[in-house]
Amino acid sequence: MFQIVFNEISAAELSSLGTLEQLELLEEFKVGREDLDNLNGERFGKIERDGRVLYRFRAKEYRFYFEVKEGSVVVHRVLHKGTFSDFLFRSKMPLAEDEALANSKHFWKLIDEGRNARSL
How many Å apart are CA 67 and CA 74, to the nearest integer? Predict the structure, then answer.
């Protein structure tokens, strides 16, 4: 199991939820090396672009976008699934969710904002 670190943005996104919902999501968000070695596309996914690797974890209606750095999971964003479902529907992209996100400049901008935020 990795240590999980939230940055300012992902912590704020998570804290905007009700206390019970936060606890339920955090209870589900457990990441081990075996999870990242055996991505199943359902709960865990991998998004790559220009040599950057980002992982996605699905919990209930939310998606955690994170990377692994120095033995820790650094969470860059915690977003409601509708955020990108709406994007995919509007753009009518015939791609899987992770592949569509990998090609989205808007998505990487959100991730960069999270990546550049202070860790808490």
Answer: 5
Q: What's the CATH code of the domain at 72?
A: 3.30.2310.20
Q: Which of 83, 43, 46 lies closest to 59, judged by CA? A: 43
The model's pTM: 0.72
In a domain, 96, yes or no: yes
Could you read off the pLDDT tens digit of each residue along the chain, which spans 120 residues? 788 999 998 999 999 999 999 999 999 998 888 888 888 777 888 888 788 888 989 899 898 989 998 888 999 989 888 776 545 544 544 456 677 777 777 778 878 887 777 775
- Single-letter residue type at 84: F
In a domain, 27, yes or no: yes
Under 8 Å between Cβ of 88 and 97: yes
Q: Which long-range contacts (CB under 8 A, 24 or more apart) does 11-15 make?
A: 11/120, 13/77, 13/78, 13/79, 14/78
Q: What is the dihedral of CA 46, 111, 19, 119, to 10 degrees?
A: 110
Domain that holds residue 38: 3-115
